[in-house]
């Protein structure tokens, strides 16, 4: 069938679906692959029957989460389909479909696949958008890095909503943590989407400003140039808003600098994206590159899952924390986010007489909670408490507080990376080199991590991400959570449970959060699934390109069609000469400099000057690439 006939067929399907939608009023869909379509259907065994605020237990206690098949099934479903309502922020406030990318062009690109599947959906530009002096022209193909499974008409990790004539798109965990493998034609659950070009897609949105606090814009003052654009503050005064066009242009530059396969999850007014991690999480605690998610259910994994939706997929929820996080009045903060909102019902106009919070409240789908997503609110809100970065717990209506986060934790802990076979004699040699070179000194235990957070100056990597939660220290609250099974909405008068925090754990979490006078740090990562997760280190800076050239640095990877070579990138991690070339290439790349991607640090070598022969180094690399799950 020719492309025109395929488009006509797809148009007929869409028209029929549109008629059904008009009749029903609302519907949504997110793809979830069948087990037969997985490259890694094998699972880890769950060692405990209950999780009690991060402690394994054989019997129920206060705060216990029962680990069973029902929890696992809900976890897998939530991983692929749960948005917690972020489609409203992404569509109506950020305008992901109102900039260079449009619903029509995304649908067209999906239709033209004709069921083939892809690791990089290319979408035509619908409207010209200028980023950092470059204009993306109508018809130009954008490499989004969105993955589409074979036979699907929807990208992995995208949930599409039809709501009485309005289409929205929300994101789920699978967007970043599941990948289509063109080699096998199957989906790798838990693998990071290494070419997901989320920074560029956000830069091409109509209101990138809604995410400006994740970029290097330490002050709005240089943008407050129009004395007529003001907003009433909570204190009864008036303050200028930033010029919307100037701030938008600056925000686009910062977002577009993120390399494919990375994401800036910290609203710290600094551009410092981190490489998307895998979800092969069993025995890998603490979580997050800095180790900030180390307390609470599933040894901090539920805190990490919650952070994505309570902090990263709805920036309007940070309004009450704006005074101590950004030095801004909440109305100034919200006005900044909403003055370019593509949806008229969410757009703030300084001349219409309402405050930004009143504009938000009038259309908020969750009027009883901060922001737009679905949240249970802890008494500590809007302050952090070492379990939740802002006192919010993303929760789906109709189930207990935090249940989906805990369920996803159980599911992720069951995931194993695809088996990558190698000759036994090579693996044996590689293991010997691993021991001899001292790698096992930190990378020990079932998942090849000793669970420590190491000070940033000691590990030597770029330090800004390690300090991203430092601003929360002045308002920090003791860690607590609602008990497992607490109904949502939370009944009035419901008390929370304190989350245990020993002195040893406190020292580590303070280092992870760059508090108590510490410089911040990075956790010792587990080594499961390295074949799926190149490039390496927290900034993704240890990168070597594919093909015979094996060009060093992230430059060759800025086109998402070219992923890093896992074996050569791992070699750069342990070979000082190759690493020097990688670092030099990164320093020479302006985009890497903007994103603070260096590839520096972790100066632990297994190379010729360290007494490791080239064949031994190659065996070490093969051994590392073979690690597919916790050793038992």
Automatic annotation (TrEMBL):
Residues 425-628 form the Cytochrome c domain. It comes from the Bacteria. GO terms for molecular function: cytochrome-c peroxidase activity; electron transfer activity; heme binding; metal ion binding. Transmembrane segments: none annotated. InterPro entries: Cyt_c-like_dom (IPR009056), Cyt_c-like_dom_sf (IPR036909), Cytochrome_c_Peroxidase/MauG (IPR051395), TAT_signal (IPR006311). Keywords: Heme, Iron, Metal-binding. This is Cytochrome C oxidase Cbb3. It comes from Methylobacterium durans.
């Amino acid at each position: 069938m020719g492309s025109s006939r395929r488009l006509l067929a797809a148009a007929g399907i869409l028209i029929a679906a549109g008629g059904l939608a008009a009749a029903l009023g609302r519907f949504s869909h997110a793809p979830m692959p069948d087990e037969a379509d997985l490259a890694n259907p094998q699972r880890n065994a769950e060692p405990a029957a209950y999780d009690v605020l991060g402690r394994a237990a054989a019997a129920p206690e206060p705060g216990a989460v029962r680990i069973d098949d029902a929890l696992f099934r809900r976890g897998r479903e939530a991983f692929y389909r749960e948005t917690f309502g972020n489609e409203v922020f992404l569509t109506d406030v950020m305008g992901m479909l109102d900039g260079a990318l449009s619903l029509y062009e995304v649908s067209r690109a999906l239709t033209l696949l004709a069921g083939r599947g892809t690791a990089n959906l290319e979408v035509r530009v619908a409207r010209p958008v200028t980023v950092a002096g470059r204009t993306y022209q109508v018809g130009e193909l954008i490499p989004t890095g969105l993955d589409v499974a074979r036979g699907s008409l929807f990208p992995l990790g995208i949930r599409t909503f039809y709501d009485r004539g309005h289409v929205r798109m929300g994101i789920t965990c699978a967007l970043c943590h599941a990948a289509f493998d063109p080699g096998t034609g199957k989906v790798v659950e838990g693998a990071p989407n290494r070419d997901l070009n989320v920074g560029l897609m956000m830069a091409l949105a109509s209101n990138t400003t809604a995410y400006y606090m994740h970029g290097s814009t330490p002050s709005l003052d240089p943008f407050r140039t129009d004395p007529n654009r003001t907003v009433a503050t909570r204190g009864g005064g008036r303050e200028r808003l930033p010029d919307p066009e100037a701030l938008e242009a600056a925000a686009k530059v910062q977002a577009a600098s993120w390399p494919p396969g990375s994401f800036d999850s910290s609203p710290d007014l600094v551009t410092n994206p981190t490489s998307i991690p895998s979800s092969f999480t069993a025995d890998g605690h603490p979580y997050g590159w800095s180790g900030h998610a180390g307390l609470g259910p599933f040894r901090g994994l539920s805190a990490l899952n919650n952070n994505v939706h309570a902090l990263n997929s709805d920036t309007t929820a940070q309004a009450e924390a704006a005074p101590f996080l950004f030095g801004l009045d909440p109305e100034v903060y919200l006005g900044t986010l909403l003055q370019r909102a593509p949806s008229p019902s969410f757009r703030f106009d300084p001349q219409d007489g309402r405050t930004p919070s009143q504009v938000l409240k009038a259309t908020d789908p969750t009027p009883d909670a901060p922001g737009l997503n679905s949240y249970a609110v802890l008494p500590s809100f809007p302050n952090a408490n070492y379990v939740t970065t802002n006192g919010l717990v993303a929760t789906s209506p109709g189930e207990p507080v935090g249940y989906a986060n805990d369920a996803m934790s159980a599911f992720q802990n069951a995931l194993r990376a695809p088996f990558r076979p190698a000759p036994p004699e090579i693996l044996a040699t590689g293991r010997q080199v691993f021991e001899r070179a001292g790698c096992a000194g930190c990378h020990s235990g079932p998942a090849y991590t000793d669970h420590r957070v190491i000070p940033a100056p000691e590990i030597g990597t770029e330090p800004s991400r390690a300090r991203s939660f430092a601003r929360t220290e002045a308002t920090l609250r003791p860690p607590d959570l609602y008990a497992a099974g607490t109904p949502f909405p939370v009944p009035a008068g419901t008390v929370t449970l304190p989350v245990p925090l020993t002195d040893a754990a406190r020292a580590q979490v303070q280092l992870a959060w760059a508090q108590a006078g510490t410089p911040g740090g990075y956790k010792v990562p587990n080594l499961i699934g390295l074949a799926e997760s190149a490039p390496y280190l927290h900034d993704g800076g240890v990168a070597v390109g594919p093909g015979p050239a094996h060009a060093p640095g992230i430059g060759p990877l800025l086109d998402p069609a070219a992923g890093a070579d896992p074996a050569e990138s791992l070699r750069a991690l342990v070979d000082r000469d190759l690493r020097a070339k990688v670092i030099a290439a990164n320093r020479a790349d302006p985009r890497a400099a903007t994103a603070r991607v260096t590839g520096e640090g972790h100066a632990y070598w297994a190379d010729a000057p360290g007494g490791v022969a080239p064949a031994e180094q190659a065996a070490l690399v093969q051994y590392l690439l073979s690690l597919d799950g916790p050793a038992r």
